[in-house]
């Protein structure tokens, strides 16, 4: 196996782990609501999850280990992507904050701070900031 194949394989496994973590969050209440299903469909496409992998993960999300990002910046990058997808599509309407909170906790953000983090993330995405500005503002939001 070449180095690039190894990198691609590891990248794919991380994406599957991240997607399975999101599926676990969606299934936490025992039901995947249509809004959550729509969100999962878009996320699967973005993470390059095939249809067969998607079905396999939905069937048994515990099969893949949760791979939360190691660094705070990586968590912020994931949060930026997720917040943008939710905000741009507007398909989750009133439930978007609830779903973002669940996902943010799964990403490793502290439950006691998650309301503040999501409010700030939605505010920044609403202002259409780029990824670098988002990360900077999130890192310095308490200063």
UniProtKB/TrEMBL annotation:
Gene3D superfamilies on file: TerB-like
Domain of life: Bacteria
Protein name: Fructose 1,6-bisphosphatase
Taxon lineage: Bacteria, Pseudomonadati, Bacteroidota, Flavobacteriia, Flavobacteriales
């Amino acid at each position: 196996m070449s180095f690039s194949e190894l990198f691609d394989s590891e990248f794919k496994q991380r994406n599957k782990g991240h997607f399975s973590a999101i599926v676990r969050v969606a299934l936490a209440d025992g039901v995947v609501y249509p809004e959550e299903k729509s969100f999962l469909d878009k996320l699967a496409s973005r993470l390059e999850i095939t249809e067969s992998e998607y079905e396999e993960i939905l069937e048994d999300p515990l099969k893949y280990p949760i791979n939360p990002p190691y660094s705070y910046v990586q968590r912020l990058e994931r949060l930026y992507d997720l917040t943008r997808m939710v905000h741009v599509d507007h398909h989750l309407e009133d439930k978007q904050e609830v779903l973002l909170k669940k996902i943010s906790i799964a990403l490793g953000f502290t439950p006691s701070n998650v309301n503040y983090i999501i409010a700030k993330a939605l505010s920044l995405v609403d202002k259409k900031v780029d990824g670098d500005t988002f990360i900077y503002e999130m890192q310095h939001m308490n200063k």
